[in-house]
């Protein structure tokens, strides 16, 4: 493939963030250096070895954080260093030996295709010793990215990536550890960068041989918080600042074909996870006291989060008055007064509407999450069973 004349080979760097991976680091760094001229290793406060001494004869740059700041911060340290030296692209690879440096060659053609692509190495999970939590984490991360951006990426959790540093360094991030790798894809997509994938191989050692700095509780908490922040930002009707001007084509011709339009709506995001989330969100909003605007709010939220609008809108019919609002009022009344409202009548509801509205809202804060979880679980189980039946 012809090279993009604006990117010279020496402007493609490799960055290796490392924290306590002395067993695999040298082989990874040597493999990367055999392919690329410029390799930078960021020692993120390692305590198991002197990284600079370990790599002394490999002709690689070693940067050091005096204390552990997190993988995301190590990547940003490398990115700023590379841009300051006229580098254009940075290929990041984990130091634990999970990835094969030779796969760097697969990124190069996509790098030359365009200067604003983020390229993600999609791991081949058809190999030995793949942990169940890794398979789940991959699906979980892919699902959230789809909600946040509408993009379908096969493996957005992979750390083997290529970033255009001039754009990466213009973005602002909250996460500096593993949550950075989730945040960067969403914010890059919002800024107009293209996300592309390339298939790569992966090596997982046996469980007793693995070395990982991932802290299940804290890092999962950070990931949950960053996804909550990204989803919240996605719901705001505010325009994102573009770094790359990409022409947006809006094809409204399908509106002239109601049958095709309905088919498109029915087919959007129809995975069991997607349908379950649409049902859960529709349920949650349907139970809240959004007087006379439930449908509009549900459509807006479903559209912003790329959910199935048909499911989200229609699930609200299960929660129409009077039963569910009455249940919320009862719960809210109990929260306020410590006893149940035994007289629900025209007088107690409509002549005291302001009180009942407060109680409806308070009760919905309990009933809505519970209803959303229940309806989401029902839809997920049902959709999963139907999917398995169709695959037989």
Q: How would you characterize the overall build of this protein?
A:
- By secondary structure, this protein is of the alpha/beta class.
- The protein folds into two domains: 9-235, Spore Coat Polysaccharide Biosynthesis Protein SpsA, Chain A (Alpha-Beta Complex), CATH 3.90.550.10; 253-391, no CATH class.
- The chain is 50% helix and 10% strand.
- It has 15 helices and seven strands.
- The protein has helices spanning 22-33, 51-54, 71-84, 104-113, 132-149, 165-168, 179-190, 216-235, 258-267, 272-287, 294-304, 309-314, 323-337, 346-350, 353-391; strands at 12-18, 38-44, 61-65, 89-92, 117-123, 161-164, 194-200.
- A seven-stranded mixed sheet has the order 3-2-1-4-6-5-7, with helices on both faces.
- Strand 1, helix 1 and strand 2 form a beta-alpha-beta unit.
- Helix 10 (272-287) runs antiparallel to helix 11 (294-304).
- The mean pLDDT is 86.
